[in-house]
Amino acid sequence: MRFAFHTMRKFVTIFSLFKSKNFSVSLIPNSPRCSNQLHPNFRNLTQICDLSLSPLSSHRFVSTTAENPSTLNRNVHQDQGIDFPGGTVELIPEMKFISESVKERIPCYRVLDDNGQAIMGHNFVQVSEEVAVKMYTDMVTLRSMDTIFYEAQRQGRISFYVTAIGEEAINVASAAALSMDDVVFPQYREAGVLLWRGFTLQEFANQLFSNKYDNGKGRQMPAHYGSNKHNYFTIASTIATQIPHAVGAAYSLKMDKKDACAVTYFGDGGSSEGDFHAALNFAAVTEAPVIFICRNNGWAISTPISDQFRSDGVVVKGQSYGVRSIRVDGNDALAIYSAVQTARQMAITEERPILIEALTYRVGHHSTSDDSTKYRPANEIEWWRVARDPVARFRKWLENNGWWNDRAESELINNLRQQVIDIMLILESILIHHSV
Ligand SMILES: Cc1ncc(C[n+]2csc(CCOP(=O)(O)OP(=O)(O)O)c2C)c(N)n1
Ligand SMILES: [Mg+2]
Q1: Which of 9, 115, 181, 287 is least surrounded by CB atoms within 10 angstroms?
Q2: What positions does the domain Dehydrogenase E1 component occupy (predicted)?
Q3: Strand pairing report for 290-296 and 354-359
């Protein structure tokens, strides 16, 4: 823990220096999210959290009387409670252990059903046609890019690749809900966030082919993107190390009074690392404006979540550390968009961390180094691929609004395939040219 705290403190300093020197925190103007409006249902943020549960709702446990041992006895109310930092703790005669499990699981926030219809009683943040269409086209672009680059690895053109198939909504809808000023600390399955921010297919290809135009000058493993210009920290394979870094950055943004937060993505496997727990705790006590987005896709390579933790998923861990949290349907782009935009507002205006657990499924193999049919049934993969597809679900909603149709779809697909193939052909011709 002490080591992690040092790491975070050091990172606050490094991050501040980084900003002052070459780190572009200023933003690409005219970000599409500017047109977004908070749904009237969400105007009063306190309406959407159960804040009656104080003292957890307050930033800090305020009582200090128990810190002075000489005053302790005087503050014990024999039959009622003991004053202890954090408020009065009830005294009871029964020996009662807290149960290791809850009667009911934490519910999951969802706006669209599997057919793309808004469910009864839904409340969500309004999204304009322009933003919704860009969300959809970026999700399709991400999927096309994944399919083509995955095949390119299989053909020996690149050495490694990771897809986000099945997790396009978490990638793109969360990015759409953020501002370009927000600093992103990714794991490795969030290329869609970078795509949303304007990283081009050519730039992805440069990194994957490890050429001199790559921001990392070809020194990183393929699929380990990073871009100062897009406020997107370079991916590190070491699982969960980015989570405390995000807290340090968030603390720095708060000290500088920026209208921005830090956002970190990680998988269920990331939440099984010590760094996740240290980061949540530090974020809570430093009141850092950071959003933790956990993509709970059921698997950490071949390890299922049942072998990782016995809690009700990841969301419940937030409350243990004093972090406001929500569980969201990760395959519902509108639910993700609404939750992230609302979380962002809370994080910045109230100076607090927020944890979002997005329930989803990794439809693809873990990476090109994996064959997931060796450890999970093919029909499970197929069910998530077809019945719970986040891209098809969002498309139905767009079509119901009259914002998308078959013609627009085929134009987009043809255009994308051609773009990626053209880029790869150019890159390969450069490689051949250099090797002769
Ligand atoms: C510290 C560390 N331990 C182990 C690994 C090996 N490893 C790479 S990815 C991975 C699984 C991570 O799973 P999760 O966080 O759920 O992300 P997902 O791949 O499901 O998106 C593991 C164990 C690593 N890269 N770093
Ligand atoms: Mg996982």
Answers
A1: 115
A2: 138-423
A3: parallel
Which ligand has the minimum distance to the alpha carbon of residue 266? 1
pLDDT digits (tens, 9 = 90+) for 161-176: 999 999 999 999 999 9
CB 345 within 8 A of CB 135: no
Which residues lie below 8 Å from residue 297, measured CB to CB, with a gap of 6+?
166, 167, 267, 268, 330, 360, 361, 362
Give the pTM.
Answer: 0.86
Active site residue 433: no
- Would you state the pLDDT for residue 35? 35
Strand partners, 76: 82
Phi/psi of residue 65, nearest 5 degrees: -60, -35
CB 362 near ligand 1, within 6 Å: yes
At 320-366, the pLDDT tens digits run 999 999 999 999 999 999 999 999 999 999 999 999 999 999 999 99
Q: Which ligand is nearest to the CA of 270?
A: 1
Residues with Cβ within 8 Å of 135's Cβ and at least 6 positions away in sequence, in order, are: 127, 172, 173, 176, 333, 337, 394
Identify whether 237 is a catalytic site residue. Answer: yes
CA–CA dist 51, 62 (Å, integer): 16
Give ranges for CATH 3.40.50.970 in the chain.
Answer: 2-39+106-431
Q: In angstroms, what is the span from residue 243 Cα to ligand 1's centroid?
A: 13
Q: Say how many Å lie between the CA of residue 237 and the centre of ligand 2.
A: 14
- Mean pLDDT of all residues in the chain? 86
Q: 2-39+106-431 domain in CATH 3.40.50.970?
A: yes
Q: How far is the CA of 189 from the centre of ligand 1 (A)?
A: 11
Active site residue 380: no
State which ligand 1 atom lies nearest to the alpha carbon of 237: 25
> Which pair of tokens denotes residue 232?
């997107």
Average pLDDT over residues 94-101: 94
Task: Give me the pLDDT at residue 98, please.
Answer: 93
Any idea which residue has 């005294």 for tokens?
91
pLDDT of 252-281, one tens digit each?
Answer: 999 999 999 999 999 999 999 999 999 999
